Amino acid sequence: QLQLVESGGGLVQPGGSLRLSCAASGFTLDYYVIGWFRQAPGKEREGVSCISSSGRSTNYADSVKGRFTISRDNAKNTVYLQMNSLKPEDTAIYYCAAVHLLSSSWPPEVEEYDYWGQGTQVTVSS
């Protein structure tokens, strides 16, 4: 069974940091582009960042540039999202998603992603 599982969410004060993990089971991430998305209550899902299968290419939403860093460790079958200088507006459920590198454009459109995790809650509040 192909599965993505996010972890690392929680409650953090403004200015703080969190590192989210996206671990795959049932398949290897080596040939997959991985994206991070978030959805806040009452808002549409927003693309946050994505990383190519090799890790050499990354893409970020303007709202997180300079604060978030995406990375991957294919040996651990895991992708990370390091989030620094967190703001209350970063509060959302964060999801990771995967699409095979041969099946996607760059950066992939949200509709191209085939596999999705269940999400992890990030709350930024004092």
List descriptors.
four-stranded antiparallel β-sheet, 126 residues, mainly beta
Q: Termini, distance in Å?
A: 40 Å
Indicate the low-confidence ranges by residue numbers.
none
* Helix and strand composition category: mainly beta
What can be said about the biggest beta sheet? 7 strands, mixed
User: What is the beta-strand fraction?
Assistant: over 45%
The portion of residues assigned to helices is: under 10%
Write the layout of secondary structure elements.
Layout: E1 3-7, E2 10-12, E3 18-25, E4 32-39, E5 46-51, E6 58-60, E7 68-73, E8 78-83, E9 92-100, E10 115-116, E11 120-124
Parallel strand pairs: 2-11
Antiparallel strand pairs: 1-3, 3-8, 4-5, 4-9, 5-6, 7-8, 9-10, 9-11
Structure description:
This protein is an all-beta fold. 0% of the residues lie in helices and 48% in strands. The chain has no helices and eleven strands. The protein has strands at residues 3-7, 10-12, 18-25, 32-39, 46-51, 58-60, 68-73, 78-83, 92-100, 115-116, 120-124. Strands 2, 4, 5, 6, 9, 10 and 11 form a seven-stranded mixed β-sheet that branches. A hairpin with a 4-residue loop joins strand 7 (68-73) and strand 8. It is globular, with a radius of gyration of 14 Å. The model has no long low-confidence stretch (mean pLDDT 96).
The gist of it:
The protein has strands at residues 3-7, 10-12, 18-25, 32-39, 46-51, 58-60, 68-73, 78-83, 92-100, 115-116, 120-124.
